[in-house]
Design goal:
Layout (H helix, E strand, L loop, with lengths): L3 H54 L2 E2 L2 E2 H35 L5 H25 L24 H18 L10 E3 L9 H14 L6 E3 L10 H8 L27 H13 L1
Parallel strand pairs: 3-4
Antiparallel strand pairs: 1-2
Length: 276
Amino acid sequence: EYNIEKAYEYNQNSNDTIKELDDIKNKIKTIQRDIDKLDKDIKEAHLELNHEYKVLAQYTKEEITYDKWIEHKAAAQIVEKIDTTVYELNIKEENKKDKLKKYKTDVEIKEERKKKETDFFKIFQSYVSELGIKDFFDDNRFKKLYRMSFFPRQGVELHKTILAYNFAFNRIIKDSNIHRFPFVLDAIFKEDIEQDNKNEIVSFIAQYKPTDTQTFIVIAESENEDKISSYNNDYFENSAYLICIGDKRQERAFLSKDISHSNKIIEETMSILGDN
């Protein structure tokens, strides 16, 4: 709607826009003058430098021109930079070589493996003989620690062979500079093992158990069979700590008891695990 107020507002805005355009045009002219002056100064500087360079280029000393001198100086700086870079790279290379000296080469690793296999086989063979297992080492595969995937035995002999293998392996890593976890032997008896074989197995474990780590032995026992205490007395000099799970009646009863009274121990254990 047309009125005096609207007309004034429109003309005021129009005049402000025209004024702003004029101010911007003036700024552009000022900047352009500065650019033209700088361009002129640059051209004059170029002319002066060219003149001075031509004067210098006329001089020759001992057949060395100014151009040759400039090239020589540039080349000298490049060579110096290359020498510095090569020196720094050589230092890095030597540092890496020093670090690599801690590691064995492929040949050294193979030799070390061969030695470990020989040591392992001696222990494994003696344990197999100790458990009364018939020798099966006519096949060369069963002399190689890193190639064994099965054993040519069945029943209680297979059970004893696996026991001998694990004890031999645990013994061979004892001399290695590594952290060893406790030795865990789950279900050391098969259901159909006779008592003589059970006694032989427990005797073997008692004789060759590791002395530098804990050993956990799991034996299934029922109400009709009470041998654990006698094993502890006859073979371990009552030094084993006995834990009966499920009161000899329940199966898979490891977490069946109320352990709320042990919350403090559990929290302390979790805290230790968290710190490590």
